[in-house]
Amino acid sequence: MNICIYTVITYSFSGFLRMKKIIHCDCDCFFAAVEMRDKPEYKNIPLAIGGRADRRGVIATCNYPARQFGVRSAMATAHALKLCPSLTVIPGEMEKYRNVSAQIMQIYREVTECIEPLSLDEAYLDVSGSNLYKGSATRIAQMLRSRVLQETGITISAGVAPNKFLAKVASDWNKPDGLCVITPDQVESFVENLPVRKLHGVGSKTAEKLQSMGVDTCGDLKTLALSQLTENFGRFGQRLYELSRGVDDRDVVTHRVRKSISVEHTFAADLLSLDECLSHIPELYRELQQRFSRYQDERSIQGLFVKLKFSDFTQTTIEHRTMDHNVLFFSDLMTRGYKRGNKPVRLLGLGFRLKDLPLTEPLLQGPFLPGPLLQGAMLQNGMLQSGMLQSAMLKAPRLKGFPLKNTFYKNKESEGFQQLSFWY
């Protein structure tokens, strides 16, 4: 696991100067590491966790001996075996990996509750408020690496830096089993020579476009004006402008809202016609409904989408905004998507776009609400902005015994801002 730590200076609401310290922890080839821990005969041979080559499987992860042959995650298993004929490919055991991940996350929680898991093997930790080791994020990272190895047998790499962007870059810097620390006074020099391909969101096409503009490093990127970047890259231009200067104001988010849910299936043999594709919708739809059942108490459906990947690896996704769903809706979307390529299909996927459930209870409940008459509180995207409400209540005189005359319900169809008033 790699650990990356950073420190950023911010002001708290109390007005005191506070150092922001972020650690990014990343297990080294996690699935493969668990298998090598449990089966020593795997340790020194090329090993991958993935699907079978004859079933068009892909590699989920591989160990470092396999990577020396060029094997990588998300690579087709058949291609991986061509690069490394001696590669041992096993299907893996997700339940076992989830259990090990839970052990590791529990170790993190003993340091801080401010944790943002990105996957089973990767997480951000905000240790800004920790008093461990006199607040030293570097020593905390060292301790975490030691404890995870001792208690689970898994190595992690870690990055320490003043923001999430730099922490994640740093965790990859000394892999495997490494630690990289970027202090606030090192940010400018570190970012200056950082290749733009290391920036989150910069894929091969964006990198090629930047290279055509004479940009290979963040130092090169800094020479471009913000207007030039937004003209060429849209809203992402603003992000490029900030990252090239080592700026990333994102907080560690302890709870992520799921925006979509989907199921996919890659077929051993190409589907040669639209009818063949349509015949698989009922099975995929049942699986999708089963997956959604775990979230239906928290999220509702606001749209449907279908994904098709064709035999030449081109793909298309087609969507429809609706709260209704059935096999016929998905069949219509798949028909329209198939006509975009009109060629054999290797992968099909169905999905739901999700949103918050409409509230069925009042946002405020009585019979009494301590506080003054409040007007102008805002509802943004269906969520009461509690900070504004609390702020207004703190500043106004306290009133007692005024019965609440009206309560407010979340508007099922609300979008943007809505004005609320409260009467007593």
Overview of this structure, please?
With 424 residues, the chain is of the alpha+beta class. It has 4 domains: 1-186, Reverse transcriptase/Diguanylate cyclase domain (Alpha-Beta Plaits, 2-Layer Sandwich), CATH 3.30.70.270; 193-243, 5' to 3' exonuclease, C-terminal subdomain (DNA polymerase, domain 1), CATH 1.10.150.20; 260-356, 2-Layer Sandwich (Dna Ligase, domain 1); 375-421, no CATH class. Helices cover 33% and strands 25% of the residues. It has 15 helices and 16 strands. The strands form 5 sheets. Strands 1, 2, 8 and 9 form a 4-stranded mixed beta sheet that branches. Helix 4 (94-109) packs antiparallel against helix 5 and helix 10 (226-233) crosses helix 11. The radius of gyration is 26 Å and the shape is globular. Residues 5-17 and 361-424 have low confidence and may be disordered.
Structure in a nutshell:
This protein is an alpha+beta fold. The chain has helices spanning 30-38, 64-67, 77-83, 94-109, 137-152, 164-171, 187-192, 204-212, 218-221, 226-233, 235-243, 274-279, 281-292, 327-341, 386-395, and strands spanning 2-11, 17-27, 47-50, 59-62, 88-90, 115-119, 122-126, 156-161, 179-182, 260-271, 299-310, 315-320, 345-356, 375-380, 383-384, 417-421. This is DNA polymerase IV.
